[in-house]
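Same chain as my last thread, 146 residues:
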Amino acid sequence: MTRKYLAQLTEIHASAFSPGWPVEDFAAHMDLASDDIIDIIEGGEVRGFAIVRTAIDQAEILTLIVAPAHKRRGLGGELLHRAEARALERGAGIMFLEVAADNPAAISLYKNAGYYQCGTRPRYYRRKVNGIVGRVDAILFKKHLA
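reply #2:
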């Protein structure tokens, strides 16, 4: 992944989160030795990406997103598999992640991949629907990789 894709990462992230991360955040992840950006790029277009942080024997998926035009094609599963493989290469034996309780597609992906719920962050994600701001729980998941 090179810096020429920063604008696409920012745009894709903003399609799933409000507010999305600024371009500077993605640049910082590129520079951190602990972080890996796992990507699917075809024809110069970022179709999806995941950011994984590894610290000694544990890893965390900080974000995993498929561009809206490329959903329902198995790319999320491919990104998840590649993120796990990278964490294992770095020596991690366990992977953590969190997902919004109102995201059934992602919850299903993670459960089908062997993740199990290990906690909840009440009212963690901010949501704005029809001008009304609310909060949604974050569900914490983990999986033993090795």
